[in-house]
Amino acid sequence: MTRNTIQLGILVNSDVFVRGLKFIIQESVPHDIEWRVMTPETANDALGNGELDLFVLDSNQAREVADRITRERRPRIIVISDRQRLGAGFPIPAKRACAFFPARDPEWKLRYQLHTTVGCIARSHGDHSMSCKQCPIRESGQTAPSTLSPREIQVMEGLGRLQTNREIADDLGISVKTVETHLGNIKHKLNLKNSREVFKRAIRWVEGR
After folding, report:
1. What average pLDDT does this structure show over 153-172?
2. DSSP string spanning 49-104?
3. pTM: predicted TM-score of the whole model, two decimal places
4. CA distances, 37 to each of 46, 138, 139, 185 (Å)
5. Which domains does the chain have, with CATH numbers?
6. Is 1's pLDDT higher than 50?
Protein backbone atom coordinates (compact mmCIF):
# COMPACT_ATOMS: atom_id res chain seq x y z
CA MET A 1 0.00 0.00 0.00
CA THR A 2 1.37 3.43 -0.94
CA ARG A 3 0.83 6.66 0.96
CA ASN A 4 -1.67 7.84 -1.67
CA THR A 5 -3.79 4.69 -1.62
CA ILE A 6 -7.46 5.54 -1.04
CA GLN A 7 -9.02 3.50 1.74
CA LEU A 8 -12.56 2.38 0.88
CA GLY A 9 -14.94 0.71 3.30
CA ILE A 10 -18.08 -1.07 2.08
CA LEU A 11 -21.02 -1.78 4.39
CA VAL A 12 -23.73 -3.04 2.07
CA ASN A 13 -26.12 -5.90 2.83
CA SER A 14 -26.02 -7.47 -0.65
CA ASP A 15 -23.29 -9.76 -1.97
CA VAL A 16 -24.48 -9.15 -5.53
CA PHE A 17 -24.21 -5.40 -5.14
CA VAL A 18 -20.78 -5.69 -3.52
CA ARG A 19 -19.52 -7.75 -6.47
CA GLY A 20 -20.88 -5.16 -8.89
CA LEU A 21 -19.29 -2.36 -6.90
CA LYS A 22 -15.90 -4.06 -6.96
CA PHE A 23 -16.17 -4.50 -10.73
CA ILE A 24 -16.98 -0.82 -11.22
CA ILE A 25 -14.02 0.21 -9.07
CA GLN A 26 -11.60 -2.07 -10.89
CA GLU A 27 -12.84 -1.11 -14.36
CA SER A 28 -13.60 2.57 -14.20
CA VAL A 29 -11.96 4.31 -11.22
CA PRO A 30 -8.39 5.28 -12.20
CA HIS A 31 -6.90 5.49 -8.72
CA ASP A 32 -5.11 3.19 -6.31
CA ILE A 33 -7.84 1.91 -4.01
CA GLU A 34 -7.74 -0.60 -1.18
CA TRP A 35 -11.26 -1.74 -0.36
CA ARG A 36 -12.65 -3.69 2.55
CA VAL A 37 -16.07 -5.28 2.94
CA MET A 38 -17.13 -4.56 6.51
CA THR A 39 -19.51 -5.53 9.25
CA PRO A 40 -21.04 -2.81 11.45
CA GLU A 41 -18.46 -3.66 14.12
CA THR A 42 -15.41 -3.37 11.86
CA ALA A 43 -16.88 -0.27 10.23
CA ASN A 44 -17.27 1.46 13.59
CA ASP A 45 -13.69 0.58 14.49
CA ALA A 46 -12.34 1.89 11.17
CA LEU A 47 -14.40 5.07 11.41
CA GLY A 48 -13.25 5.67 14.96
CA ASN A 49 -9.61 5.21 13.97
CA GLY A 50 -9.92 7.52 10.95
CA GLU A 51 -8.84 4.75 8.59
CA LEU A 52 -11.32 5.35 5.76
CA ASP A 53 -11.27 7.93 2.98
CA LEU A 54 -14.51 6.74 1.36
CA PHE A 55 -17.39 4.77 2.85
CA VAL A 56 -20.11 3.12 0.74
CA LEU A 57 -23.02 2.61 3.12
CA ASP A 58 -26.29 0.70 2.86
CA SER A 59 -29.03 2.99 4.19
CA ASN A 60 -30.58 0.03 6.03
CA GLN A 61 -27.41 -0.30 8.12
CA ALA A 62 -26.85 3.41 8.69
CA ARG A 63 -28.28 3.41 12.20
CA GLU A 64 -25.60 0.96 13.34
CA VAL A 65 -22.80 3.41 12.48
CA ALA A 66 -24.67 6.71 12.83
CA ASP A 67 -23.11 7.75 16.13
CA ARG A 68 -19.58 7.33 14.83
CA ILE A 69 -20.31 9.12 11.55
CA THR A 70 -21.98 12.02 13.35
CA ARG A 71 -18.88 12.58 15.46
CA GLU A 72 -16.19 12.05 12.81
CA ARG A 73 -15.47 14.44 9.90
CA ARG A 74 -14.11 11.64 7.79
CA PRO A 75 -14.77 9.81 5.53
CA ARG A 76 -16.66 10.91 2.43
CA ILE A 77 -19.82 8.83 2.15
CA ILE A 78 -21.92 7.41 -0.68
CA VAL A 79 -25.27 6.08 0.55
CA ILE A 80 -26.88 3.16 -1.31
CA SER A 81 -30.60 2.62 -0.76
CA ASP A 82 -33.71 0.85 -1.96
CA ARG A 83 -35.48 4.18 -1.41
CA GLN A 84 -35.66 7.08 -3.83
CA ARG A 85 -34.50 9.70 -1.28
CA LEU A 86 -32.62 9.77 1.98
CA GLY A 87 -35.77 10.80 3.83
CA ALA A 88 -36.00 13.06 6.85
CA GLY A 89 -35.85 10.03 9.12
CA PHE A 90 -32.38 9.05 7.93
CA PRO A 91 -30.19 8.67 11.08
CA ILE A 92 -27.15 10.44 9.60
CA PRO A 93 -27.19 14.18 8.75
CA ALA A 94 -27.76 14.58 5.01
CA LYS A 95 -24.80 16.98 4.78
CA ARG A 96 -22.47 14.10 5.72
CA ALA A 97 -23.37 12.22 2.53
CA CYS A 98 -21.44 13.16 -0.60
CA ALA A 99 -23.85 11.24 -2.79
CA PHE A 100 -27.02 9.17 -2.69
CA PHE A 101 -27.63 6.27 -5.08
CA PRO A 102 -31.05 4.57 -5.33
CA ALA A 103 -30.26 0.91 -6.04
CA ARG A 104 -32.72 0.78 -8.95
CA ASP A 105 -31.06 3.65 -10.80
CA PRO A 106 -28.81 2.96 -13.81
CA GLU A 107 -25.27 1.80 -13.11
CA TRP A 108 -23.69 4.77 -14.89
CA LYS A 109 -24.89 7.06 -12.08
CA LEU A 110 -22.99 5.04 -9.50
CA ARG A 111 -19.92 5.01 -11.74
CA TYR A 112 -20.11 8.79 -12.00
CA GLN A 113 -20.57 9.23 -8.25
CA LEU A 114 -17.62 6.96 -7.46
CA HIS A 115 -15.40 8.58 -10.08
CA THR A 116 -16.26 12.08 -8.83
CA THR A 117 -15.86 11.27 -5.14
CA VAL A 118 -12.59 9.36 -5.55
CA GLY A 119 -11.23 12.14 -7.74
CA CYS A 120 -12.11 14.67 -5.05
CA ILE A 121 -10.28 12.62 -2.41
CA ALA A 122 -7.23 12.29 -4.65
CA ARG A 123 -7.11 16.05 -5.30
CA SER A 124 -7.54 16.92 -1.64
CA HIS A 125 -4.66 14.65 -0.56
CA GLY A 126 -6.63 13.67 2.52
CA ASP A 127 -7.78 17.20 3.40
CA HIS A 128 -11.40 16.44 4.28
CA SER A 129 -12.09 20.05 5.23
CA MET A 130 -12.26 21.11 1.58
CA SER A 131 -15.46 22.85 0.54
CA CYS A 132 -18.07 20.68 -1.16
CA LYS A 133 -20.30 23.53 -2.31
CA GLN A 134 -19.34 23.14 -5.96
CA CYS A 135 -19.55 19.32 -6.00
CA PRO A 136 -21.61 18.16 -9.02
CA ILE A 137 -23.10 15.17 -7.16
CA ARG A 138 -23.90 16.84 -3.85
CA GLU A 139 -27.58 17.40 -4.62
CA SER A 140 -28.18 13.66 -5.10
CA GLY A 141 -28.47 13.41 -1.32
CA GLN A 142 -30.85 16.32 -0.97
CA THR A 143 -33.59 15.36 1.46
CA ALA A 144 -36.09 18.15 0.92
CA PRO A 145 -37.47 20.20 -1.98
CA SER A 146 -34.97 23.00 -2.58
CA THR A 147 -37.79 25.53 -2.98
CA LEU A 148 -38.75 25.31 0.71
CA SER A 149 -37.31 27.53 3.43
CA PRO A 150 -35.58 25.96 6.47
CA ARG A 151 -38.65 26.63 8.62
CA GLU A 152 -41.02 25.16 6.02
CA ILE A 153 -38.83 22.05 5.95
CA GLN A 154 -39.15 21.75 9.74
CA VAL A 155 -42.93 22.07 9.51
CA MET A 156 -43.11 19.53 6.70
CA GLU A 157 -40.99 17.09 8.69
CA GLY A 158 -43.27 17.41 11.70
CA LEU A 159 -46.32 16.81 9.52
CA GLY A 160 -44.67 13.79 7.94
CA ARG A 161 -44.04 12.39 11.42
CA LEU A 162 -47.81 12.62 12.06
CA GLN A 163 -47.62 15.53 14.46
CA THR A 164 -50.62 17.83 14.88
CA ASN A 165 -50.30 21.53 14.08
CA ARG A 166 -50.24 22.23 17.83
CA GLU A 167 -47.41 19.73 18.40
CA ILE A 168 -45.41 21.23 15.52
CA ALA A 169 -45.98 24.73 16.90
CA ASP A 170 -44.86 23.71 20.40
CA ASP A 171 -41.74 21.97 19.08
CA LEU A 172 -40.71 24.97 16.99
CA GLY A 173 -41.77 27.66 19.45
CA ILE A 174 -44.20 29.29 17.04
CA SER A 175 -47.97 29.77 16.93
CA VAL A 176 -50.45 27.37 15.35
CA LYS A 177 -51.41 30.18 12.98
CA THR A 178 -47.78 30.43 11.80
CA VAL A 179 -47.70 26.67 11.23
CA GLU A 180 -50.84 26.97 9.11
CA THR A 181 -49.22 29.79 7.12
CA HIS A 182 -46.15 27.65 6.47
CA LEU A 183 -48.34 24.74 5.34
CA GLY A 184 -50.12 27.05 2.92
CA ASN A 185 -46.75 28.17 1.52
CA ILE A 186 -45.64 24.55 1.17
CA LYS A 187 -48.82 23.71 -0.75
CA HIS A 188 -48.25 26.65 -3.09
CA LYS A 189 -44.51 26.04 -3.66
CA LEU A 190 -44.96 22.33 -4.36
CA ASN A 191 -48.03 22.88 -6.56
CA LEU A 192 -50.25 20.68 -4.41
CA LYS A 193 -54.03 20.90 -4.61
CA ASN A 194 -55.06 20.64 -0.97
CA SER A 195 -54.00 19.86 2.60
CA ARG A 196 -54.47 16.13 2.04
CA GLU A 197 -51.86 16.19 -0.74
CA VAL A 198 -49.48 18.16 1.50
CA PHE A 199 -49.93 15.52 4.22
CA LYS A 200 -49.29 12.61 1.84
CA ARG A 201 -46.26 14.35 0.34
CA ALA A 202 -44.81 15.01 3.81
CA ILE A 203 -45.16 11.35 4.80
CA ARG A 204 -43.50 10.15 1.59
CA TRP A 205 -40.66 12.64 2.13
CA VAL A 206 -40.00 11.53 5.72
CA GLU A 207 -40.02 7.88 4.64
CA GLY A 208 -37.71 8.56 1.68
CA ARG A 209 -40.27 7.64 -0.97
Report:
1. 91
2. TT--SEEEEEGGGGGGTHHHHHH----EEEEEESSSS--TT-SS-GGG-SEEEETT
3. 0.68
4. 12, 24, 27, 45
5. 6-141 (3.40.50.2300), 150-207 (1.10.10.10)
6. no
